Amino acid sequence: MAINLLRDKGGVPLSQQRMSWRDMVGKPISKLDDDAFTRVRIILMNGQELDALRTKQVALRMNRKARVQLAELMRVEQHQATTINWLIGADHSPIETTIGYEQTAIEVTASVAQLEPDSYLATGYRYALLEDFDHLYRYSALLDRLEGKDANNIVQGFTDIVPGRPTIEHHRAPEHDLLEPYGPDAALATKLHAITLTGGEYQTHDYYMNIGPIFADPLARQLYAEIASVESQHITHYGSMLNPEESILEKLLLSEAAEVWNYAGCVEQESNPRIKAIWERFLDYELGHFQVALQLFKDVERRDPETVLGDGRLPPFIRFESQRQFVRETIDRETSLRKNGTQVVEEAEEGTTSRDYRRAVNADGSPSSTVSATYSWAPGTELTRVEEKAA
Questions:
Q1: Can you say whether the dihedral through the CA atoms of 345, 350, 353, 355 is positive or negative?
Q2: Which residue in 170, 335, 159, 296 sits closest to 237, CA to CA?
Q3: Is 388 exposed, middle or buried (0-12, 13-18, 19+ CB in 10 A)?
Q4: What is the DSSP-derived secondary structure letter of residue 343?
Q5: E strand residue ranges, the chain
Q6: Closest CA to 135 of 174, 175, 172, 95
Q7: What residues contact residue 197 under an 8 Å CB cut-off, 6+ apart?
Q8: C-alpha span between 228 and 347 (Å, rounded)
Q9: Buried b vs exposed e over 122-151: b needs ≥16 C-beta within 10 Å?
Q10: Minimal CA–CA distance to 152: which of 192, 96, 213, 210?
């Protein structure tokens, strides 16, 4: 989709963006009949909308001149987020939705890692990828334990369900979660990748923090607490990629550019016509939002947007397809890697404060290790068990 952020003036004007409750709360997808990557796109874009709201809330608190426009933008973003989030239906249990979140993290991060032009940041994406990959395995064990279900019903064979870097090894001292940020001359792709992954991890963290306490099973409660902590580390990991010298209106401009880029990628690749129509509508909305952010940037900061957006051409889209081979190769090469400050290093060079921190936080055991102690994924788990009992 050939969109140029600086030349194209399309989109629905902000004043015409209205939705009814019926628009927002439509028919959800089916966990079995819809393609797994439709759910991946839904989860990804809900995270982008929530992060766009978060960015605007910060901007509202820091900029008097933009308050009205920001309030108007946030109202529409809220309704877009509602529309998208409500597409996940009641046929998904909370753990099955969790499986969908982890599949999203794996497949999206793997694609971004291959698209990223900065080799240092690409290493950072691969590093966290192996941790989300292991989370999928631990939650699949929990799904089997509590519901007797096969996680492959959710991932539909696109994503392997095997251990990655063990979750017990993910816990780091805070100073070792940071990365060096991209600079002002970074490619637009680099900026959009970091914004997208930060928003995705924020959403996952908040979801786990909200649903973790609803479980009666003590191990489930502990597992969500453990992995939510790691997701918080991932927010720091990806968020530290963002240039801290960017102004708040520069960040707003990039946030809107990221939404345009992500919706355009969803439109190009969506297989469900009804969901594709939602992506097309919201792409038109975001093109309108981008024009508001662009004008604010020009009027308030008196700066040339080309210094932020380059030539305005959208970079290649995230590929919504199985990244199995890339993930397997990354597991083979990089599972043993660790963090020391802002560098990814061999295991023996890991920051010593992380080892001290792990000993403390795992003093009474690791829920992620316990939940999978007797678990080994095999295809058709629940059907196989029924057949074995019948025999």
A1: positive
A2: 170
A3: exposed
A4: E
A5: 338-340, 343-345
A6: 95
A7: 108, 109, 112, 125, 128, 238
A8: 24
A9: bbbbbbbbbbbbbbbbbbbbbbbbbeebbb
A10: 96
| The pair of three-digit structure tokens given for residue 214, joined into one six-digit string | 């609803």
List 313's β-bridge partners, or say none: 4
3-state secondary structure of 28: coil
The CA distances from residue 350 to 166, 169, 339, 341, in Å, are: 15, 11, 6, 9
H-helix or E-strand spanning residue 194: helix 188-211
CA angle (333, 336, 338) in 5-degree steps: 120
Strand partners, 344: 339
Which pLDDT belongs to residue 11?
83
Q: What is the dihedral of CA 328, 199, 215, 97, to 10 degrees?
A: -60
The pLDDT value given to residue 374:
82
Separation of first and last alpha carbons in the chain: 55
Q: How many CB atoms sit inside 10 A of residue 181's CB? A: 18
From 84-88, 300-304, 384-388, the region with the lowest mean pLDDT = 384-388
* 209, HSE (Cβ side, Cα atoms, 13 Å): 11
Neighbouring residues of 388: CB distance < 8 A, sequence distance ≥ 6: none
Task: Tell me what the mean pLDDT of segment 119-143 comes to.
Answer: 98
Angle between the N-to-C axes of helices 218-239 and 119-147, in degrees from 0 to 180, rounded to the nearest 10: 170
pLDDT computed for residue 1 by the predictor = 60
Average pLDDT, the chain: 95
Contact predicate 289/256, CB 8 Å? yes
Sign of CA dihedral 241, 245, 246, 249: positive
Q: Against a cut of 0.85, is the pTM above it? A: yes
Look at residue 278 and give its three-state secondary structure.
helix
For the chain, give every domain's residue range: 14-390
Could you read off the pLDDT of 8-48 as tens digits, one per residue? 887 899 999 999 999 999 999 999 999 999 999 999 999 99
- Which residue, 327, 351, 356, 321, is CA-closest to 339? 351
Question: Given the structure tokens 């080994």, which residue do they identify?
Answer: 376
Between CA 159 and CA 104 the distance in angstroms is: 10
